[in-house]
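Tokens as discussed.
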């Protein structure tokens, strides 16, 4: 079925004007489809088009949100596999004394700039991404977005992203079991769990990334989108630096956490794009006509 597609910011605005006041799935299709000039429901690569067809087929039979959850579960499996691969790569790098050779010099550099007031600031800042601060922050933002949009999608994305981040953290720590920097080089309160990867950094990267993504979907200006992305990136980056500064992690723990977090974030965003594609297709043609 052919239809004329709006393009760019003007297209997004016209779609929003035409669907004024819509919430839930209809609101998502009309308001979340464009990021600037990019139509998230258009797939140029053949594999992307095939994947979108599979998800449309699943959506027609299971419902859009069930298809989204299933897609995210597949993504989580891929992320867990990448965690295992990263552990193997880490072992190879350590044996070759590659990137790991930066661990001790960077810890020494961090220790050289410590001061009582900076220690206090860094400790408070890193606690934001900790086991108490980050869940509270994520849950608050999730509830606000879900209520404002009257949709379960932010809840599904946030919970799955957080669960995947936790899964990668636990798997990495169990696979490697790396010791943290010596307590004599760390700032209390001390931590005793395995060091690899940095759970604080991984959580900050994933959760800040998902929040930024959900926010930019509703921003009309390029400046607003850039500021939002920069804020999320700076938060994830500085949380990682704080872990090294405090002597709670080695540099490679943080580096792998950034990498795994970015990969998992891409998988979550891709799953949401597939959800938007399937939902929009069903709205245009009807669920019964979806084909794999």
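Sequence:
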């Amino acid at each position: 079925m052919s239809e004329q597609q709006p393009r760019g910011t003007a297209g997004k605005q016209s779609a929003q004007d035409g669907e004024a006041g819509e919430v839930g799935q209809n609101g998502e299709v009309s308001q979340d489809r464009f990021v600037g000039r990019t139509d998230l429901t258009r797939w140029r690569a053949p594999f992307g088009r095939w994947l979108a067809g599979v998800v449309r087929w699943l959506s027609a039979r299971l419902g859009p949100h069930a298809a989204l959850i299933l897609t995210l579960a597949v993504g989580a499996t891929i992320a867990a596999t990448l965690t295992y691969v990263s552990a193997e790569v880490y072992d190879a790098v350590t044996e070759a004394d590659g990137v790991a050779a930066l661990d001790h010099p960077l810890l020494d550099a961090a220790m050289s700039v410590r001061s009582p007031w900076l220690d206090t600031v860094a400790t408070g800042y890193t606690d934001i991404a900790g086991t108490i601060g980050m869940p509270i922050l994520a849950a608050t933002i999730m509830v606000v977005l879900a209520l404002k949009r009257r949709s379960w999608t932010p809840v599904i994305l946030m919970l799955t992203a957080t669960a995947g981040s936790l899964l990668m953290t636990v798997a990495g720590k169990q696979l490697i079991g790396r010791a943290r920097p010596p307590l004599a080089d760390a700032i209390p309160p001390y931590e005793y769990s395995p060091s690899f990867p940095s759970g604080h950094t991984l959580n900050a990267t994933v959760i800040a990334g998902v929040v930024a993504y959900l926010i930019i979907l509703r921003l009309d200006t390029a400046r607003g989108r850039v500021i939002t992305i920069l804020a999320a990136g700076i938060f994830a980056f500085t949380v990682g630096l704080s872990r090294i500064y405090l002597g709670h992690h080695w540099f490679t723990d943080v580096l792998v956490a950034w990498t795994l977090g970015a990969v998992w974030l891409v998988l979550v965003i891709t799953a949401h794009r597939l959800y938007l594609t399937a939902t929009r297709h069903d709205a245009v043609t009807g669920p019964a006509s979806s084909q794999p």
